[in-house]
Amino acid sequence: MPKPLSTSEIEDFRDKLCDAGLQIFAEKGVEGLTLREVAARLGVSPMTPYRYFKDKDEILAAIRARAFNDFAEAMEAGARRGPDAVARSNAAGEAYIRFALEHAEAYRLMFQVSQKECADDHPLLAKAIERARATMTHHVKQLIAEGVFEGDAELIGHVFWAAIHGLVMLQLSGKFNERYDFDTVRHETFRALTQGFLKRG
Amino acid sequence: MPKPLSTSEIEDFRDKLCDAGLQIFAEKGVEGLTLREVAARLGVSPMTPYRYFKDKDEILAAIRARAFNDFAEAMEAGARRGPDAVARSNAAGEAYIRFALEHAEAYRLMFQVSQKECADDHPLLAKAIERARATMTHHVKQLIAEGVFEGDAELIGHVFWAAIHGLVMLQLSGKFNERYDFDTVRHETFRALTQGFLKRG
DNA sequence: GCGATAAAATATACGTTGTAAATTTATAGC
DNA sequence: GCTATAAATTTACAACGTATATTTTATCGC
What we know:
Oligomer: homodimer
Strand content of chain A: under 5%
Number of helices of chain A: 8
Shape of chain A: elongated
Distance between the termini of chain A: 74 Å
Number of strands of chain A: 0
């Protein structure tokens, strides 16, 4: 018999499948990702992925996890070198937005849930989400430590997260116009929110 | 020949189809809405809707338009009677959130775009969206008129819109936990944002 | 080396989807 | 009542996810 697949071979295949999946997403959007298409790109038959994943939902969860990791990576990389917490936080925020707009289909997938499947069922996905969340919280903690903000870091982090997410989603669904465009609304949002959390006195 | 369909008959059929569509959405979510299912509920054959709509995308656009109108209606109704602009604005905001969470599938549809179809191609949808936008802007104008806020009403309206949208979408995709739950983050978001737009002096 | 064996991969097939094309049904004017 | 034609239905097809059947393939004892 062919030797049973080693853990690393399984990992490898899954990784390649996620790569191909994200590429298809970027090219053709969510509905373009079919098992037949992704299998074709991997040079295997349409049924082969079923040896590595239970069903399409599990494949989507894996791609989602990968996307969340790429996303956290992008934020962390963007904010790596900066003179102070303010600069690094701004860089992280910009990296967030850049990632979301440049990988629109992946971003959409990341925050889309079919009632059928839930992050709790997919530990790797939950972990990837947690990593992204931690990255965002981290910058708020730094801002508090440097005496810029005051309050509950995680709470403030969620506030900013929701605000950025809303901006990005409205932008992606074309709800802004040229007069009140993304950058204008974003700037005003950040100005107002920041003011609301500044340390007093 | 059977008398050609009158405009009102066409309107009628489209209306009933949107009703059925929204009902299916609420029951089974986005993927539950198939032409065969909606046709069955109308008691017609699966091909009949094609006489009233070009394709499924046009049907979805019609349902979306209907949903946006229901949404605007809900906000307007919620804010109708209130002693002052602050109370009415809060009521509108609450109505927004209530609608979004109670009609989650419809709300998701409203803000979902497949790159294929765009609001510009569907005048009724564009109009419905504009109505919702106007409703939101209206309350900010009132707040400015009463001397609570200062600034560009439409811009501030978009800022609040994006923030609420982000909150709702994160909630719908299960990204909040019990410690930093929807109401907590929402409250803090409104507190901070409001502070950022208050009229000074 | 070499079948036997079982894991991995593929091929086939089915039910469901959107919808094109062919067909049937129903009503207006003559 | 016959016919022309709009409306509706039936039939059919390609593409999808995936269950099941089949084939390929790499390793084992010998």
